Amino acid sequence: MELKDQIIFGRKPVLDAIKSGIVIDKILVIQSLRGEFEVEIRNKAKENGISIQRVPQEKLNKVSRNHTHQGIIAYLSPLKYQNLRTMLPEILESEKHPVLLLMDGVEDVRNFGAIGRSALAFGVDMIITFAKGNARINDVAVKTSAGALLNIPVCKEKDMEDTLSYLGSLGVTVLASSLDSEHYLEDIKVEGPIAVVMGSEERGVSKVTSDYADTTFKIKQSNKMDSLNVSVAAGIILHHIYNQQK
């Protein structure tokens, strides 16, 4: 699989790309960017759920290999994101027990890719990520997933709370992996449509997730290690669910 991280740079090319519907994951702008263009690009990015990061000029020079970037660079996505509110009702109608996977602070791109690989292996129907807080799905993520991320519907949403509320309104049970839980994975009974939330290795799931989760659980393990790598934990959790649904 030959993939490389694709970028476009320059004010008009980036703005035109957004307006034409090209899928952009992330935009870098020079720290000093101000004025009418800054307002326009910020508003367009917000409308399309694209995160913007202010960086020093040296960073832009390095990424663009010293080409004329005019203080802005956009990373293109290697995949096409799906529309959650269009696709999820279709999945719920066609599948008795669909499994969704939400990323809540999975910042390492290789962990993200490895989780995607387990998701495909264990029959996950959809991955939901967010414009901020998670690793960007780039060429490294796709390669680490062994191409799995190109073969599972992926939705990128703007807001975690809004998404969890929407899932609840459709009868999806939210299960969150949390070291603070008093329940263990093997005690969880998988029934109906579920969404599994994987959080940050350092911070766990967010407070929003904890507040919305129907059930939290943890993986039973020895006391020789505080926690598992998030991609390993995801594999164990998804395998458990897969076995219950067989």
State the gist of this model.
This protein is α/β, with parallel strands linked by helices and 246 residues long. It has nine helices and ten strands.
What descriptive keywords fit this protein?
246 residues; alpha/beta; Alpha/beta knot; 6-stranded parallel beta sheet; 4-stranded mixed beta sheet; 9 helices; 10 strands; elongated
Helical proportion? 25-40%
Q: Cα distance, first to last residue?
A: 32 Å
Biggest β-sheet: strands ordered side by side in the sheet: 7-6-5-9-8-10
Q: What's the CATH superfamily of the largest domain, by name?
A: SPOUT methyltransferase, trefoil knot domain
What would you report as the Rg, rounded to the nearest angstrom?
19 Å
Report the CATH C-level class of the largest domain.
Answer: Alpha Beta
Beta-strand segment tally: 10
Instruction: Please mark out the parts with pLDDT under 50 across 5 or more consecutive residues, or reply none.
Output: none
CATH topology of the largest domain: Alpha/beta knot
| Gross morphology | elongated
Average pLDDT, rounded to a whole number, is 90
Number of domains: 2
Share of residues in strands: 15-25%
Order of helices and strands: EHEHEHEHEHEHEHEEHEH
Q: Please tally the helical runs, counting DSSP H or I stretches of 4 or more residues.
A: 9
Q: Architecture of the largest domain in CATH? A: 3-Layer(aba) Sandwich
Structural class, judged by helices and strands? alpha/beta
Largest sheet descriptor = 6 strands, parallel
